[in-house]
Amino acid sequence: MSLSENPELQPLLFVLFISFYMVTVLGNLLIILAVSSDFHLHTPMYLFLSNLSWSDICLISTTVPRMIWDIRNQSRVISYVGCLTQMSMFIIFACMDSMLLTVMAYDRFVAICHPLHYKIIMNPNICAFLILASVFASLVDSQVHNLIVLQFTYFSDTEISNFFCDPSQILNLNCSEMFTKNIVIHFIGLFFGLFSTSGIIFSYYKIISSIITIPSIEGKYKAFSTCGSHLSVVCLFYGTATVVYIGSTALNSPESCAVASLMYTVVTPMLNPFIYSLRNRDIKSALWKLQRRAM
What we know:
Helix content is 80%, strand content 0%. The chain is mostly helical. Helix 10 (254-279) crosses helix 11 (281-294). The radius of gyration is 21 Å and the shape is globular.
């Protein structure tokens, strides 16, 4: 489905999405360069942040380049293999974002609630394990969805009510074995969704409980400021995801679903670098150092 059928809007959409894509890629690459070039940022928190930036680049690359190509060529057709590939890659990197945000919440929990044992708990081996576990869980999630979809009869001339091969739209194309399909889908959704959200909620419950016990207001502000950027990204990521999978379903409108998906797949990865660069002094300092070296 096209975002707009108005031919006069196509050039505007073309320029708009190229701009979104370039800003997202450059912004996240700057975060990665800042973290890798500054020795002071070689900590677990910024290691996870740089991996989140890579995941955001890959996430937006699964949808926007294809959408730009479709607008340029006035085409909305995608092959069966291409659709499955796009869906698979989208699930991997969307799940990666979710898992990495959970890992980052755990990192902040250890830093604030167990500061004396932080370096012992968050050692390089544990950090590498958490990143690899996030990748593995994302691959498992994607493969389970693929196994369900590959049970379908081959579809041709099928309309998808979104601007990309949205997994929820693809899974609804199957009319057979609905009971089994729904059990598997809901189990996978509950496992990954509930694991991530419960991990983040538990971590921040412990964080807030610890911050409350700090006697000075300055100490409370300093402790909570280390979580501000992460909490903003979490709210943006899960807020837009909730709109996609709950709000758009309630409205039962393809247009509302497409707009909600746009927020989730394009706007969120684009805003993440701005949130971390504007709210984090260490990132600001590293970016200034990069600018001086470039000059």
